[in-house]
Structure formats: C-alpha cells, structure tokens
Amino acid sequence: MIKEYDFDSIASSYGDQKVSSMGEELARYQRKLIDLKIPVMIIIEGWESSGNEHIINDLIRELNPRNHHVREYDYEHSVEKDKPVMWKYWKLLPKKGDLTILDRSYYFDLLSDITIEKKDLHKRYELIKTFEQQLIDDHMLILKFFLHIKKKTHRERLEELKKDKDRSFFITDIDEKQSKNYKDYEGHIDKILKKTNFNFSPWQIVSAEDLKLAAKEIIGKTTAAVKEKIDTLEQDTVAFKREPYAGSLPLSNIDLTLSVEWDPYQAELEELQKKVQDLTYQLYNKKIPTILVFEGMDAAGKGGAIQRLTRLMDARFYDVVPISAPTPTELQYHYLWRFYKEFPSRGKITLFDRSWYGRVMVERIEGFSTEWEWNRAYEEINQMERQLSYDGALIVKFFLVIDENEQLIRFRDRENDLDKVYKITEEDWRNRAKWDLYIEAMNEMLVKTHQKHAPWIIVEGNDKKFARLKVLKEFIAHAEQYI
Fold it and tell me: Reduced to 3 states, what is the DSSP secondary structure of residue 164?
C-alpha cells in the first residue's frame, strides 16, 4: 500500500486527456446507472490537506446533480455517538441509480486515530467488511481511493491553507498531528488500508502530488469500473440453487393448550408491569439500548402483548415501530436501510411490531424477493444483530404462535367487531391459504436466526392471557440478566 508506493515510478495513463471530456464520458455512463438502478458509492480518503475538494469538484462537474451527492462523515456528531455504530454508515448510502461520494468516510476515524486499541480495530474491521459485502451483494458498486502525498507536500499545503483566510477553517488538529508525525501516521494508515483491502472492495492508491492528474486518475478509474459493472450486471444476478431446508421444526413441539385463569392473570399482570417499569429506568440509567422484536402468525396477539408490556413504561423512553410493506422510497435502498433508521439511542427501547424478518417470510412466500436474496438474508440478519449486540444492545425476539383453528376464530371475530374490522384484510386471508408454506418458512427462520445474544422466544398464543404474561416474564428475565 502507501509505504511501498513509489511516486517517481507511477505514470498516469490519463495525462493527455481533458478533465472535461473524461467527465462527460462518466456522465453518459451515469445515465445508464440511473436506468439500471445501480447505486455507486465512491470513498475519497487521504492525508489531510491532500486536496480532496479539488478532486471531488472535478469528478462531479459534468454529472447530473439530481443523481449525485457528496457526503461528509461527521465523526464528532453527538447524536451519532449515541446510536449504534453502523447507524451513521447506513445513513450515507446512495439510493438505487444514484452516485454518492464520501469525503471523510466511515474510514476516517480509523485512519486518523493512531492510538486506537487492537481489539477495537479488529471489531471495526469486521463491521466494515460485513457492511461492504452486504452492499455489494445487493449490487452496489463501491470504489475506494486514497490520496497519497509526500511529507514535504503535506506541509506545504497546510501552510498554504493557513494563509488563506477564507479556507483556513479547514485546518484541524489532525492536520497538524499528521504533519508533525508523518512517519507514524504513514505506518498506521498503511496497516489500515491493507487490512481493509478486501477482494470485493479494494483500495486504489492515487498520487495527489499533481491534483489535476489525480482527478483524471479517479475519473478514469471510476468510469472503467462503472462500465464493467454495467457490462457484468447479468453475471451479478446469476441463478441461485439452494438445498431444501431439512433442519428441526420448532413449531411442531408447542403446547398451545397452556392457559391461565382471569383472576390470577390480573394479579400477576400488575406485578409484572411494575417490574417492567422499574427495569425501563434501570436500562436508561445504564445507557443500554433495547430492541424487542414481535413476529408471529396473523392475529397471534402481537399488538395486545406490546400494549401490556408498555402499559407502565415511561413513554419518553420507548417507541413502538409498526412495520408494513416498504414504501417506494424505501425500496430504493438495501432492505435493511429502513430498519437502521429506527434503532434506539442508548438507554431507549424500540419495539418492532413485525420487522426485518419479513424478508424471509412474506417476501419469500409472496415472491417479493428472489431466492438468492432471501436465502442470504439469514446471515445478513445474524450479522446485523451481532453488530448491535457488540455495541451493547439488549435484543429479545418474540414469536407468537396460534394454531390454524384459533386463527380462523379470531379472523371471524374481527370481521364481526366494528372496533376490530380494520385489522382484517384480504391479504390476511390470502396468507392463511398458504399456511403450510408460512410454517415451513417460520421454522427455517427460527432455527437459522436464533442466537445467544439475540434469542427467539416462542410464545404459546392460543390463550392471550398466557401469552401476555410470558412476554412480560421473558423480557424481565432477559433484562435483569443483562443489567
């Protein structure tokens, strides 16, 4: 990488071309990206004061401004520090067909902090590797450029900035530190680049000694990569053949006769709700973000269970997020994008009434995602929940189960109750007709995404009272253990 980089032996293959004509060629390919809905993310990293702004301006000058965006990763933003680590990364993503340039990307704090501990480095490597792999699997093109300059050039540009009263605000402590400790930073940066030089998203080192040549280099390499992505789009979506699921069937061993009488239910409910109220404050004081997922059959009682669980919670510390079909805007992004936006800050609780598991249930059964897409989602979801757990989140997932006869009774009750008729739709009846297919998908989901740090709690739901008490008890048990 940069330690082995020889400035004198590197010759640009774009030296004789004009920046404007190269930009126009890239703009022509941009129109194809829009038509094919291919998202592109270009990362521009480098030494501080290496000339990012000049290169980025040349890169975008001929592009359609409605479909490109320049984003700067705000590594000091207080809200971002209170959210899961990956939350801010997902905010920066381009939608399908757009091109986003990251000036100071999610690599910035890694590259600029030479005191970062080894264990934290390893954690961040894994987070970034998973993040980029998921995006590339979803057909995004990721290009990573590092602008390299000599120590002498770094000092000269820093001094030049200091003399410019309109641009001197660009100078930060990191600029000065890099200038004074160039060799130390060179070694650190070299190590980071090598560790994150993934075969699916490699780094490209670009000399920024001559800013005009650097701009040509990046425009040329971007154009070539975009052209290749367009040409190989069909190879990115090759047919996928998976082995039929032959694992265990957790939904076949459930006792749905479990029930509780009304009077003991009422007494126990109030006692449990008070415990939940106390735990809400304890979780907040310890700054533990909590994610509760509610899935299950239609009419299994998710809403009622959530209502009883939150009955005495302080409303300032929790939020219920009902999940329905993705909007046209949400469909323009990776399917996990809309969920990252909802994850809680430290100390807060988010309850998801349905969730990202729709990818491997309704989207699988109804054909809204391809077999390749929903089959890879098991590991993508596991990785996401693992990352949230590493970041300190308490994650508990409830799966409410009722049998086919009980569902029919509840459907008919809803149709005959003016206060509940809105809950029953034609879609519910269509899903019911595919009962066996959904049971198969649910079993596979429960087995493949049950993790110690993000467990599934199967809740016997034929008796609503029993189900509500079990949800309360399980939440209390997991929260007390976590605290």
Answer: coil
Pair of tokens at residue 74: 């705000």
The closest of 36, 134, 128 to 356, measured between CA atoms, is 134
Please provide the DSSP assignment of 273-311 as one string: HHHHHHHHHHHHHTT--EEEEEEESTTSSHHHHHHHHTT
Q: Compute CA 393 distance to the chain's CA centroid, rounded to the nearest angstrom.
A: 15
Q: Is 0.70 topped by the overall pTM?
A: yes
| Angle, helices 118-137/182-195, rounded to nearest 10 degrees | 50
Residue 101 CB neighbours (<10 A)? 26
Burial class (CB in 10 A: 0-12, 13-18, 19+), 334: buried
Q: Six-digit token pair at 62? A: 């001929």
**Whole-angstrom Cα distance, residue 163 to residue 427?**
67
Q: H/E/C letters for each residue in 360-413?
A: HCHHHHHCCCCHHHHHHHHHHHHHHHHHHHHCCCEEEEEEEECCHHHHHHHHHH
Residues 6+ apart with CB under 8 A from 270: none
**Alpha-carbon dihedral sign for residues 422, 423, 424, 428:** positive
Angular region, 122: left φ>0, alpha ψ -120 to 50, beta rest:
alpha
Q: Are 294 and 353 in contact (CB under 8 A)?
A: yes
Q: Name the residue among 196, 1, 205, 191 with its Cα closest to residue 113.
A: 191
Instruction: For the chain, count helices (H), then strands (E).
Output: 20, 10
Measured in residues, the chain has a length of 483
pLDDT in tens, 144-182: 999 999 999 999 998 888 888 777 777 788 889 999 999
Q: What is the pLDDT of residues 439-479, one digit of tens each?
A: 999 999 999 999 999 999 999 999 999 999 999 999 999 99
Residue with tokens 């592009």: 63
Instruction: Write the DSSP symbol of residue 98.
Output: -
Report the alpha-carbon distance of residue 242 to residue 443 in Å, rounded: 17
